[in-house]
Design goal:
The protein contains four helices and six strands; from the N terminus they run αβββαβαββα. It is of the alpha+beta class. The protein has a six-stranded antiparallel beta sheet with strand order 1-2-3-4-6-5. The termini are far apart. The relative contact order is 0.14.
Length: 186
């Protein structure tokens, strides 16, 4: 009888540690996302030039120094609590933007701004490309919101599938660059 009780106690401790580690892992997914995006972009040849966060939204800005092309990110973990993560899977809203510095900034930005105002687009829907500008630096950006399934990038034991994340970032940046170049030359 005593041995049975000890076995029950040992299994309760093991189960408790398993649940505790699940909570810890889920609370760190947000940090893993930011770190993985930084690492992936550095590996793709970009330098991190700005990072800000309010604890929910994380804004990152990178520049490819030789070409002065920029990539921006707005990251938000949508499933911070464990219940949501287990039911929905770990998800994040990821806005990726591609920007380039332009010579005739004022004229191009007025054209793009008029085009954006004339369309009634919900820019929060996934896949909707919008344009924005950083007036102080003369950059025009094309950006797109996406929903990422974080479980495809993050495995157990804090493993990150950097190759897949870099591939997805690179494909998005390529498409945004092509879109923006088409808008700027139209």
């Amino acid at each position: 009888m005593s041995e049975d009780l000890e076995q029950v106690f040992v299994s309760l401790v093991k189960d408790s540690w398993k649940k505790y580690n699940e909570d810890i892992y889920n609370s760190r997914v947000d940090d893993m996302l930011v770190g993985a995006v930084i690492y992936s972009n550095v590996e793709l040849g970009y330098s991190l030039i700005d990072i800000t966060s309010d604890g929910v939204y994380h804004h990152l800005r990178f520049e490819h120094l030789p070409t002065k092309q920029r990539v921006i990110f707005e990251l938000r973990n949508l499933t911070e609590d464990l219940l949501s993560a287990k039911v929905l899977g770990r998800r994040a809203r990821v806005v990726i933007g591609y920007g380039c510095q332009v010579q005739n900034f004022g004229t191009l930005w007025q054209t793009l701004k008029a085009e954006v105002k004339s369309s009634f687009v919900d820019s929060t829907e996934p896949g909707v490309i919008t344009c924005d500008a950083d007036v102080s630096s003369g950059y025009i950006y094309a950006q797109v919101p996406l929903l990422f399934d974080l479980d495809q990038y993050f495995g157990g034991n804090y493993q990150v599938n950097y190759e897949l994340l870099q591939h997805h970032i690179n494909a998005t940046v390529h498409s945004l660059a092509k879109y923006l170049q088409g808008r700027l030359t139209a």
